């Protein structure tokens, strides 16, 4: 059989070339039933010879797919990324990560920001509109998440591991421990302060534990507590430092921040109160957002692969949806990036 130039092969062409029925070819391509090894080989040989590409819409229809995934974050100030309206992380993880990967396989993304006691109900409604959900941390409780995962495929982002629910996370602890070692060993700093993010954020908790552990290992003093609590925003970091100085608190040699936006606010407050960075107080962040390279001084931080987190979350969810094997939790690396704000050179 010869196809006309520029004409795409169809499933009928594959069936004709393989000498099989349309139903047999469909069972092989859609991974249904139990076709024999010989049947599978004949179909795949015809597919290769004809360069056949299954129609995505037809394949989705045959599997009962909507070709839509839902992405859920907490609304406004409750959000783990300091409020999606002000955080570049949201654009990186959703628009450049999740949506880019979804586009490659013909899926659409339905984004929902939820808050309050109706979040679980909202997610149940969204689940009926999508083939699966990507849910950021603290949107709903762990028991609610486990119940929802029994009804629809779910992948969590930056969340504590939950039995029966796959997740994509960053190695917060490893990245932060490496940063504190650099500060304590290479710079010889003996006192630290930690300006936290939201106290119930899994990312913040992991980073705080790592700072405390590594400070203790190196015999360093660590200041933290209610007066050192921020909210992942620049305004929150500035408020914490201004309040500490107003209370007469003696600042440590280095202030470690839960994220880059907090560090931005901390540096602003220190400058306003006449404390040069890094001369009097060194400052570090976490995330390595674009502005970290353009501050003066440039910001020492920990780089986490934000865009890759989004892409990995979609790829993992898609694998679950289509029944692919090898689905497992994903832990992405976090790497310290040293710059001027800790006392290193601009390079």
In a nutshell, what does this entry contain?
By secondary structure, the protein is α/β, with parallel strands linked by helices. Helix content is 42%, strand content 15%.
Give an account of the 3D structure:
By secondary structure, the chain is of the alpha/beta class. The chain has 3 domains: 11-63, 434 Repressor (Amino-terminal Domain), CATH 1.10.260.40; 68-170 and 306-332, 3-Layer(aba) Sandwich (Rossmann fold), CATH 3.40.50.2300; 172-304 and 336-342, Rossmann fold. 42% of the residues lie in helices and 15% in strands. The protein contains 12 helices and 12 strands. It has helices at 11-18, 22-29, 37-50, 56-63, 88-104, 119-129, 142-149, 172-186, 202-217, 234-246, 260-272, 306-321; strands spanning 68-74, 108-114, 132-136, 154-157, 166-170, 191-195, 221-223, 254-257, 282-284, 301-303, 330-332, 335-337. Strands 2-1-3-4-5-11 form a 6-stranded parallel beta sheet, with helices on both faces. A 4-stranded parallel beta sheet has the order 7-6-8-9. A two-stranded antiparallel sheet has the order 10-12. Helix 1 (11-18) crosses helix 2, helix 5 runs parallel beside helix 12 (306-321) and helix 10 (234-246) runs parallel beside helix 11 (260-272). The protein is elongated, with a radius of gyration of 25 Å.
